[in-house]
Amino acid sequence: MKPVAIFQFAPDDRPAYFVTYLAARSIPYRLIRLDRGEPVPAHPSTFAGLALLGGPMSANDPLPWIAPIVSLLRLAVTTDVPVIGHCLGGQLMARAMGGIVTKNARKEIGWGTVHIEQHAVAREWLGATRRFDSFHWHGETFTLPPAAIRIAASAWCANQAFVCGPHLAMQCHVEVDEATVRSWCEQGAQEIAASGGQSVQTPEAMLAGLAERVTVLHRVTDRLYDRWVVGLRP
Asked: Which among 172, 183, 90 is positioned nearest to 137, based on CA atoms?
């Protein structure tokens, strides 16, 4: 099988559980460190699928890799190479597919409940799950592109996830592991303190019962990833 291309945009936004999942299933992958200046591949055809991680920048920023990655995503959609996006990755997908990325009404930081839409497409990706607690860290959000179907929402962000054929874009961070949450709480302490409000948790709240929270989240993550890898190109 061709490898899954994983695009990392920032040093602290690592693939975490996503590579754990792939390795456990002997799915090859290639980590592409755009944060270290690696170039964006010219075409998606050399990969089984494309996976995009998060990052502190905006999908609207004039960074040198934004336009190439958006072009790559458009090619992937037109050639049916499955794409999955986490947070910033989901926002880049939305932009590439015709959606708009804007500031969210509130920053959403910490653990929060994601509500699953009750329709056939959502059940295809998440089974009978009606809600789950995911980790969040974002100040922007996306609109739904044409032909996309929303499968999840939260109290603070209407569009938590959408699908379009084999492609899955998420605002929430289902890929985090314990080390990621601990690192973000440490690195993002100033942002947390400056944000406040009901949609932002304290580091203490985020770390409480962390091991169990991550374990429960990964059961949902597995379900989403299981559905996504079905579409990988050989």
From this structure: 172
